Amino acid sequence: GGTSSDSFAKFGAVERACKDAGVAFGPAFVGGCVVAPVQSWHHASWDTEPDVEGWGRLPAAHECMVDFFRCRFPAGLDQKDDSVAKAFDKLNDAYGLENRVAELRAAHPGAPLVTF
Length: 116
Known about the structure:
Number of helices: 5
Structural class: mainly alpha
Largest sheet: 3 strands, mixed
Radius of gyration: 18 Å
Oligomer: single chain
């Protein structure tokens, strides 16, 4: 739902709402852990497991995962190739994720790292 033109625009709207409400949106030291939200998107090339056999015809991911028919992305991004995954990964670079996590880990060397 909503009025955003595509899923990246919706993501940006959620990010702005979080910032406006004072919600932490990036890496932080919380409860004794370095917590790092990583922006990502699935891609079939990461699935290196053999196909499931003996269950009849299992549908392909793009036939049954809601992401493929509910999410819309700007022109040039397609969920059936790695372009959406790369675009989300670029957000991590734009947010300075790697440097911020390194700073937090240096400040809290024994703390576990939690990513999601």
